[in-house]
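It is worth pausing here to work through a concrete case rather than discussing structure prediction in the abstract. The textbook approach is simple: state the sequence, then state the predicted structure, then interpret. We follow exactly that order.
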Amino acid sequence: LQKKWRKFAKKFPLTSRAIRKVIRSQNASLIFLGGFLLLAGIFSATYVFWWQFGSLENAQVFIAEHPEIYGYSVLIMLIITALLFGVVGKTFLTAGVLYSLITVVMFINAEKMKSRNVPFLPDDLAMAGEAGSLGEMVDMSAVLSVLGLIILFIVVSLILHRIFRKIPVYKVPKRAKWLFRILIVAGSATLLSYNTSFLRTELYGKGTTVRVDWLDSTIDFTNPAYNYKTNGFIVGTITGFQSKVQEAPKNYSKEKIDQITQKYTKLANAENQTRENSSEKVNVIYVMSESFIDPAKIKPFYDYGDRDPIPFVRNLMSQQTSGQSVTAEYGGGTANVEFEALTGLSNYFLNTIAYTSMISGNNKTPSLAKTLRQNGYATTAIHPYSGTMYKRNSVYPNLGISNFIDMGSMKHVSKIDNSKYISDESSFKEVLDRMKSTKESDFIHLVTMQNHMPYSGGVYATRNFPVVNIKGSEEDARQWETYLEGISKTDEALQNFIAEIEKSDEKTAIVFWGDHWPGIAGKMADDSEGKQEIQKTPFFIYTNFATEKQELGAISPNYFQAVLMNQLGAKLSPFQKLLLENIKDNTALTKNQKVKQTEALSDYQMIEYDILSGNKFSAGDFFGY
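Step two, the predicted structure:
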């Protein structure tokens, strides 16, 4: 290199002297830093897409097809690298930290996409405190692989830092070093805010689907999976920072709320004249069964033979009021389903996880539990897992639930074979014990865990449902075998539970539904017909006394309490009458269903905004508490 340089200097003396002057000056440090940031932006953005799309080849295809998105992503990663450099202060150490952070985030994203077909969203940061519990649901071999990769990045960065620790020498006086780094952090943060503000804030309120010409793409705020796939993880994450606050409906005021409450109070009073006013109370048991589905729907993709895993539930649904629960969730999002079923409010109007962001600090939130407690019921929630998950320990009291029994306070904690979760049989025994221990009529809300992911082999000792892959994947077929074994055991436990309820002298109604599909139906999610089916789970209302059987069709969980009141012939609150008016035109109110804009829907939105984000003018009698 020295010989070549001498030859070059002899041939181009003026140019070589200019180069020497630049290199020997402080400009060399700035040149090196600028080059480092540029290369870091390019390589880190590519690394993100490599993780997201599963291979470098797939990442290159995306980059070639979306140069505008890639260019913007490189800019954002360059700014983030500069921000980290300001914090760390060393180039190679900055690279080690950067790639370690990317690896952690993209691993979480990959696991979420695998299990739920939903990317890692900014809202998930609210669950950071539950990392230990969530980690139990992930394959440890994958976790160890990622830890090994992170250690490799850190070690390599330390070695490079040691080798090149004096190259370049940033000629900044020691007393100004911290000021220099603070300026870099402040400048980078400002640039990051400025260059993301359009996607974070300026698109808010412009619709659920917005065209962004300078990205040559469309942002879809109703479908995070589609949005991340179309626009890449970096753009998708930025748009995920959209405001979570409900936008006030037009004409929102106390006068408007009063008009709505008076309207539905009159309608409810008129209808209640025709309803029985029995003084005898009925126990109400909510059973939200983890990932419980009708397995017959998977047969076009995964054939498990002629044996039915859920014969009892299927027979019961043919005899009792039943239908299908419809939700926008898949593979997870239990708290969103639970929110609708307990409160009667709808996720359709929200852009957040209500439990963690809205209800934990709002004791005015309505719920069926609060209404029943006002009428003398004992109200209990049972969840055989951590009580802090989704802030349930804070949410339940605000929803009128007086007693919360989590896995730490349960009496019955048996597990089946090698399962890591408390069995449904144990959970049902806990419900029966609670019913016996109370003098009052009961409202009990059970959220089960037995059929939660992962569905790895060896969970159960038996294998009664061997699965043949038809047009799915072999990996998922093996997981379906474990899953089917699990819901078969749920079916048996439910049969025993209802047999005990049948013996009881207390009138009891059980509202049972599956919260969402298990996250092993990826191939179905890509199928036009399968896509609709994976939003529906079995739903029924069982009573141990005579009631009229109804065919409910496909309804979303926000309507459950109103449908239950109909089933029992009980009087309606004005809010429940509002729900019944809405179900006439929008039986399944979710963001991935066609929704008909009606006066009742506008009234519903106004009331939900008022009680969750507004001045709570409607709180109290309107909801029956």
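Step three, interpretation. The mean pLDDT is 88. The CA atoms of residues 25 and 561 lie 75 Å apart.
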